[in-house]
Write a structure and sequence with these properties.
The protein is built from three helices and no strands. By secondary structure, the protein is mainly alpha-helical. Helix 2 packs across helix 3.
């Protein structure tokens, strides 16, 4: 997950609620976080 953290590290002006939700998802469902990041980048997750 460090890769995704570094990839999106420039997004510091995000909504605090979104930031907390993203952190919670990272702790509870790491695969979901990766799928959301892949969707944002346009990668097909199968």
């Amino acid at each position: 997950m460090k890769f995704f953290t570094r990839l999106f590290s420039s997004r510091r002006d995000a909504n605090p609620t979104t930031t907390f939700e993203r952190e919670r998802l990272g702790r509870t469902m790491p695969g979901q976080t990766a799928a959301l990041a892949a969707t944002r980048l346009g990668v097909l997750v199968g």
